[in-house]
Amino acid sequence: MKFDVNVFLLFLTSATAYEPCYNNNDCTSQCRSIGSCICNERICVEVECTKNEHCSMRYGDKNGFICNESHHCQMVQCTNNLHCRVFCQDEICICAENKCREVECTRNHHCVERYGEEEGYICNKSHQCERVECTKNHHCIGCRYESLPFACDKKSNRCVEVDCVRNEHCREKERCIYKKCKVMFECEKHSHCKDDEICRGNRCYKRECYSNFLCGDNEICKNHKCIPGKSKKPGSSYSYY
User: Fold this and answer.
1) Residue ranges of the domains in the chain?
2) pLDDT value at position 18?
């Protein structure tokens, strides 16, 4: 093999040429002190970068830098969408192949600003506003047949039949929770309880009395309970609910 003076000098001057290498992975342990290095003719040598993250660590994220094929940090127009705010102040742009490209939308609210809320639009993966059946429940009003409640399924953007949209769609003692009618209260009024019970705090309680006549001596009926007090027997007074 022909003796290469340059390689030999590189071997002498390289701070990380402790042992031969066969690929870049062999240089990982030897290059911890300096950061980035590659295997060049079986010698680990320092370079400015081996991946884009090294450029971000060296120059920050304010401007766009990529690690090129020569292992140098090269400034580009963008590496993320945030860099495009400088180049597209009045337009909506994305970063594609390190260049800012104008698009119709990047978020759903861009479509709302463009087309309004009367109809449903979403920003699809191609960054175009796409018409869908619904994005909100009020888009499904025209989908209701036979007075059945419909709501917008946010995953499919289609109107689907549900148990309820409002509490009015549910029966007594039920509330509309996540588009399903669920029993939330034991009672809301006395008629929801048994004949010998009363409704207090949305629960049915056994009542002891509804007049002083049903209580013992020196007791009165208050809030359907017999408590100590002077009663007016036999002309008992009633405690109404």
Assistant:
1) 5-46
2) 53
